[in-house]
C-alpha cells in the first residue's frame, strides 16, 4: 500500500512513519509548511511549524530511507484555520484550531492531494485507533476509537473525521501502551527527535499571547462588563480577549455582595458586552449544535439508535484532556442536542463536543448554544 506519512518533525510522527515502513508499505514522508513566516527555532515546546521542525522531519526521513518532501499549505492553513480562529473569536465563540487543522488540512487538503497522487492512505502520529467492523448492511466499516494509552489519547481532536476520511487514515501509534515506549523506540532506531519536547499551545501563536494576537486582528474597543441582570460593573478593553469561564483579567475592582469571585459567562460581540457572574452560573446541562458529523456509521446505522430523533446514551467530552461525562443525545430540528447527566462548567459556544460510546468516537458537533443549570433572574 502507498502511504503518505505526515511528518511534523516530532517523535510521534517519526515513529509512526517508521512503523509504516516496517509494515511493508511504500512510504513517502511529507512535512507541511503551514506558516508563511516560520521561525528558525522553536520557543521551548511551543509551536510545530518552524524551520527546525522541517529539518528534524527531513533527518528522520533520511534515517528511515524514505523520500521526503515539503508541501506549502500556508495559504490554505491561513484561510481555513487562522482566519476561522479570528472570525470565531470576533463572533464571541471559543474555537479549537487543532480540530479545524485536522478537519480541513491534514484530513481534507492533505488527504485530497494524497489520493490525487495515487496514495492509499495518510499516516500520522496521533494516538488513536481504527477498528474495522461489520455494519447492519453486511459491509465492513471503520470506526475511530480511543488509543490504548488514555493519558495520551488524541481521539478527541480527530472527532471531526468522516467515514470516508477514516477509510484512508492510519494511526500506527494507537495500540502503543505509553509515550515512553515511543521515545525508547525512536532512540533505538537512531532518530534524533527521540527526546524532543512535545509541542503544545496554538502553533501559530508560538509566544502564547492569544490576547495580543487577537487584538491585532479583531481590534480592541472598550465596552461594558455587566452582570446577568445587566448592571454595569466595569469596562473591558476588547471583548474578543475574553472567553467563557475566565476569571483573571476582569479588573472590576470590587467584590460581589457575598465576596465570591466572578467569571465570564457570556461574550456578546454585537453589543460589545462581557457578562460575568458566580461560578455556579457556569454550569450547563445541555449543549446543542447544527454543525455535526459522524465518525463512520451514524447512530442508526450503528444500531445505537432506532431512529435519528431517538435519544441514545453516550458520553460527551468538550476538551482534549477533559473527562467524559454521561449524556443522552438526539437530533432535533437539525441540531445535535446533548443532555448532560451531570452539569459541566465553563462550556463556551465554538468549542467542540465529541460523543463517545465506550471507546468509540461516534461523532461531534461545534457547540452553538448551551443551557445553564442556573437560569438568570427575570
From TrEMBL:
<keyword id="KW-0819">tRNA processing</keyword>
<keyword id="KW-0547">Nucleotide-binding</keyword>
<dbReference type="InterPro" id="IPR023382">
    <property type="entry name" value="MnmA-like_central_sf"/>
</dbReference>
<feature type="binding site">
    <location>
        <position position="32"/>
    </location>
    <ligand>
        <name>ATP</name>
    </ligand>
</feature>
<dbReference type="Pfam" id="PF20259">
    <property type="entry name" value="tRNA_Me_trans_M"/>
</dbReference>
<feature type="domain" description="tRNA-specific 2-thiouridylase MnmA-like central">
    <location>
        <begin position="212"/>
        <end position="277"/>
    </location>
</feature>
<keyword id="KW-0694">RNA-binding</keyword>
<feature type="binding site">
    <location>
        <begin position="6"/>
        <end position="13"/>
    </location>
    <ligand>
        <name>ATP</name>
    </ligand>
</feature>
<feature type="region of interest" description="Interaction with tRNA">
    <location>
        <begin position="152"/>
        <end position="154"/>
    </location>
</feature>
<dbReference type="GO" id="GO:0103016">
    <property type="term" value="F:tRNA-uridine 2-sulfurtransferase activity"/>
</dbReference>
<dbReference type="Pfam" id="PF03054">
    <property type="entry name" value="tRNA_Me_trans"/>
</dbReference>
<comment type="similarity">
    <text>Belongs to the MnmA/TRMU family.</text>
</comment>
<keyword id="KW-0808">Transferase</keyword>
<feature type="active site" description="Cysteine persulfide intermediate">
    <location>
        <position position="203"/>
    </location>
</feature>
<dbReference type="InterPro" id="IPR014729">
    <property type="entry name" value="Rossmann-like_a/b/a_fold"/>
</dbReference>
<dbReference type="InterPro" id="IPR046884">
    <property type="entry name" value="MnmA-like_central"/>
</dbReference>
<keyword id="KW-1015">Disulfide bond</keyword>
<keyword id="KW-0820">tRNA-binding</keyword>
<feature type="active site" description="Nucleophile">
    <location>
        <position position="101"/>
    </location>
</feature>
<feature type="site" description="Interaction with tRNA">
    <location>
        <position position="126"/>
    </location>
</feature>
<dbReference type="InterPro" id="IPR046885">
    <property type="entry name" value="MnmA-like_C"/>
</dbReference>
<keyword id="KW-0963">Cytoplasm</keyword>
<comment type="function">
    <text>Catalyzes the 2-thiolation of uridine at the wobble position (U34) of tRNA, leading to the formation of s(2)U34.</text>
</comment>
<keyword id="KW-0067">ATP-binding</keyword>
<dbReference type="InterPro" id="IPR004506">
    <property type="entry name" value="MnmA-like"/>
</dbReference>
<protein>
    <recommendedName>
        <fullName>tRNA-specific 2-thiouridylase MnmA</fullName>
        <ecNumber>2.8.1.13</ecNumber>
    </recommendedName>
</protein>
<dbReference type="Pfam" id="PF20258">
    <property type="entry name" value="tRNA_Me_trans_C"/>
</dbReference>
<feature type="binding site">
    <location>
        <position position="125"/>
    </location>
    <ligand>
        <name>ATP</name>
    </ligand>
</feature>
<feature type="domain" description="tRNA-specific 2-thiouridylase MnmA-like C-terminal">
    <location>
        <begin position="309"/>
        <end position="367"/>
    </location>
</feature>
<feature type="site" description="Interaction with tRNA">
    <location>
        <position position="351"/>
    </location>
</feature>
